[in-house]
Amino acid sequence: MQSVRNWNALRHGIVACLLLLVGGLIAACQPVQPMSDAPAAMESPQTIPEVAVSVDENGFTLPENFPGGIVTVTVQNNAAIDLDVSFGRVKEGASVEEIKALYANLEENLVPLLQMLDAMPSFNPIYAGQSARITMDFRTGRFLVVANEHVEEAPPPGIQYIWGEFTADELVGTTEPQADVTVDMADFTYTMPDEIKAGEQVWEYVNTGDQWHMTALVKLAPGATMDDVMNAIMSEGEPAAPPPFEDVPNAGIAPITPGERAWITVSLEPGTYAAICPLPDMVAMMNGGEPIPHMLQGMVRQFTVK
Questions:
Q1: Considering only CA atoms, which of 280, 124, 305 is closest in space to residue 220?
Q2: What's the rounded Cα separation, in Å, for the pair 249 and 34?
Q3: pTM for the complete prediction?
Q4: What is the DSSP string of 27-40?
Q5: Burial class for 301, CB neighbours closer than 10 Å (0-12, 13-18, 19+)
Q6: I need a labelling partner for 152 at 20 to 30 A (CA). Which of 1, 43, 52, 172 fits?
Q7: What is the DSSP letter of 178?
Q8: Distance, CA of 254 to CA of 260 (rounded, Å)
Q9: Non-local CB neighbours of 261 within 8 Å, separated by 6+ positions
């Protein structure tokens, strides 16, 4: 369970969350755990290309010809430590070497990094010796994959990064997984069903907004309301009582850039749930305004699982 104290750290560290988001190192912002026990494949009329990626303390092992388009990626952590691993789309004209150099001081270099690198899904963490799996729409282009030792909040100065680079030149994956549930993340709303069937399903997350969005899923305690949940998240100090919600692992999505999408296998028990985007309003922040969390601007959605 994600403690209310951790949600407080999230709220007070929303700018740090953006910094983490740039590198996909969003453990402080993202309660979702890796999908180590996900099914071997998501059903679709045609085969979706499968790619295996491995990482250890010495680097990444990547396929020589990475397929473009919709691809299912399994990342194996062969290191002796838990790793946060993320994928990023290098923007046209950006320098990979400059991106790596900017990582030395994320806080100082936030704006240029956002101008050079788009965030794709990340895993926070992949435990030592385990793997995680997700389906993404790579399309084509240049990509970075970066890992570091798992951290719960902002990465400390001098943290060591493990880098991998690849290109996807040919559009190979042209078939989408058959999604049972689509979660459309926009500015600042969720479009998704009011009622969802219990059990295992394929969820599609898509960012159709102009800002970066994520989804943290929580299950409300019996009798709790959304006001109770929001008050607990926004409260100061240690909670006086158990939180009115619990986090739902293996079900949300880490921050992704506008236009990105991903598919994961989700299994929920019956109950009342909420989707929450705690990321800050980056546009406001870059214009000198307050980086108000998206959830305080209406990006919260309650739904029922039956």
A1: 305
A2: 8
A3: 0.85
A4: TTT--PPP-TT--S
A5: buried
A6: 52
A7: -
A8: 11
A9: 136, 137, 204, 205, 206, 207
What are the beta bridge partners of residue 76?
54, 131
pLDDT for 245-295, tens place per residue?
A: 999 988 999 999 999 999 999 999 999 999 999 998 888 877 888 888 999
Q: Which residue has the tokens 């601007």?
A: 297
Task: Enumerate residues 6+ apart whose C-beta is below 8 A from 104.
Answer: none
Is the distance from CB of 277 to CB of 213 less than 8 angstroms? yes
CB neighbour list of residue 288: distance below 8 Å, 6 or more residues apart: none
Q: ∠36-38-43 over CA atoms, to 5°? A: 155
Q: Kindly give the interhelix angle for 14-23 and 4-12, rounded to the nearest 10 degrees.
A: 90
Phi, psi of 297 (to 5 degrees): -105, 15
Residue 62 is which amino acid? L
pLDDT digits (tens, 9 = 90+) for 95-130: 999 999 988 877 777 778 888 999 999 998 999 999
**Structure tokens that stand for 284 in this block:** 């406001």
Residue 139 burial by Cβ neighbours in a 10 Å radius (0-12, 13-18, 19+): middle
Q: Residue 293 gets which letter from DSSP?
A: B
DSSP 54-88: EEETTEEE--SSPPEEEEEEEEEE-SSS-EEEEEE
Per the document, the length of the chain is 306
